[in-house]
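Reading a protein record of the kind used here takes little practice once its layout is understood. The fold follows as a row of integers, each naming the local backbone shape at the matching residue. With these conventions in mind, the following record can be read line by line:

_____
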Amino acid sequence: MSRAVDGSKRKNHRKKILKLAKGYWGRRHSNYKTAKDAVAKALSYAYRDRRDRKSDFRRLWIIRINAAARPLGLSYSRLVDGLSKAGITINRKALSNLAIEDAAAFSAIVERAKVALEA
């Protein structure tokens, strides 16, 4: 049996890879052999970074909370300890948004944490 070189399945697969490589630099967008490697690498980076994005945002929220809590007299770690002792369960995203958008509510939460730490 002869080997298919220009069949529709092969063409469609190559077209799909080259479509994914659109906008790549040099031969990577037009040459199938190099585009295939570039697309495989790009897809693996995309998969990895979708997971990394979650930790990046958590890191950002922690930085924001710490920056807002320090002028009120608490570090981030002491604040989180105080919140747990006060029985306040609030996630970092919500706490960060409070620190940015509603400073009065954030300072009230910090005061509750301070009271729990002293007790």
In short: The mean pLDDT is 93.
